[in-house]
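Obj.: predict assembly geometry.
Materials: sequence records (below).
Method: joint structure prediction, all chains together.
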Amino acid sequence: MRNTLFTADRKLKWDSSTCATCCLCNIGDESRNHQFFQCVYSAEIWNSLTKGLLGQYFTTDWTSLVQVLANNDRDSQCQLIACYALHIAIHSVWKEGNRGNHGEPPLSATTLHKIIDKNIRNLLVLLVNSHEKQYEGLLQIWFGTKV
Ligand SMILES: [Zn+2]
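Observations (raw structure tokens):
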């Protein structure tokens, strides 16, 4: 949120020999906004995770996404799921970027999507099993948004 991740655009300020190219797509320059979710790799994942959930509010633009998720006018359960999806997606994409920066090939976007989706479902199961009223129906919403 504070744009303090050690992305290539920031590394370049310290070391001019740093490669600025995103190791996930090998097309764009790595920055927070590129990695979340302007990059074709992460955009594919974010799209398949949340397009159905966010509907008309879906975006891959970081600034717009933060505004959408901070808007309390939307359904609170959808907002909760979208925030969890964002947290898990950011962690997972960042981890894959680190793999790439250390010479390992990142997982395919399809494989990473499946892992993130499973993590979201596991989290939602935990919430639903807490038997708190506000978490009822979270899994139905998540499965209902799949296209
Ligand atoms: Zn990229």
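Conclusions so far: The chain has one domain: 37-144.
To do: check interface contacts against the pulldown list.
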